UniProtKB/TrEMBL annotation:
GO CC entries: vacuolar membrane
Protein species of origin: Brassica campestris (Field mustard)
Name of the featured protein: Potassium channel domain-containing protein
Family recorded in the similarity comment: Belongs to the two pore domain potassium channel (TC 1.A.1.7) family.
Listed transmembrane segments: 78-96, 108-127, 133-153, 195-216, 249-270
Amino acid sequence: MSNHSAPLLAREHIDPMDQDLNQNSLTSSRKRRLRRCRSAPRGDCMYNDDEDVKTDEPPPHRSIIPMFRDLNPNLREVILFFVLYLTTGTLCFYLVRNQISGNKTNGVLDAVYFCVVTMTTVGYGDLVPSSSTSRLLACAFVFSGMVLVGHLLSRAADYLVERQETLLAKAFDLRKTVGPTEILKELHTKLRHKCYVTFLVLVVLVLVGTIFLVMFEKMPVIEAFYCVCSTVTTLGYGDRSFNSGTGRLFAVFWILTSTICLAQFFLYVAELNAETKQRELVKWVLTRRITNNDLEAADLDGDGVISCGVYII
């Protein structure tokens, strides 16, 4: 009778240690088999929780300067080009300072001031090249400054495209958990507030420049405001400019800040307009239901069956 109570098939006793080893070997074999393609995004299904597993992605670049670590790579590149341009231009214009005529104050300060005025295309005319060498040098820096500005605009365009791609990707991500209304609320950015803040900073810069010209350059209020407007917009008629050493030292920082602030304001306005249209597109995509015409158009081979691969395409 004891034989009837015994199991029909005898089971071998499995050591828990051997079971853990088998499980670890199975997991490691899966890790070796699942290799991520360079173009494939990282997913939760990837076994990337193990610190020993190496991926094909290169490590992110870490800047030596702490304040530059969190900057956008495009912005870091623009800042590098700008510093290189300003340093080279100051050195070159300082070496030919005797070939530049006009109201001079200090050699180094005048070189920096002339370089900034040339790069921003303000062109007051208070300092002008008077020899063939200095004029050729000024022409070279005018065109290189325009190239730098064009590079900045191209990076700004790339930034707008990246923002739109991020917006659309985030919309499809959130669609899995919330509805279209909640998605649109989640995607509402603070661009409008950025526009307001940038415009407020621009107004403050205009007021500061006007007050400085009245106090230190002894200009009337209307002429000071006129000079500020012609400078911020890089118009630079040349009848009013910074003539004293203190004024040019202030102008080196103020001209760069005010012109960049104006360009940033226009960038935010363009981004706000583009994002408004993009949100309308996202709303149309998320709220639109699939019709029979869409299904017929998705049937590429015409067999009346839509596979998963065809549906994704």
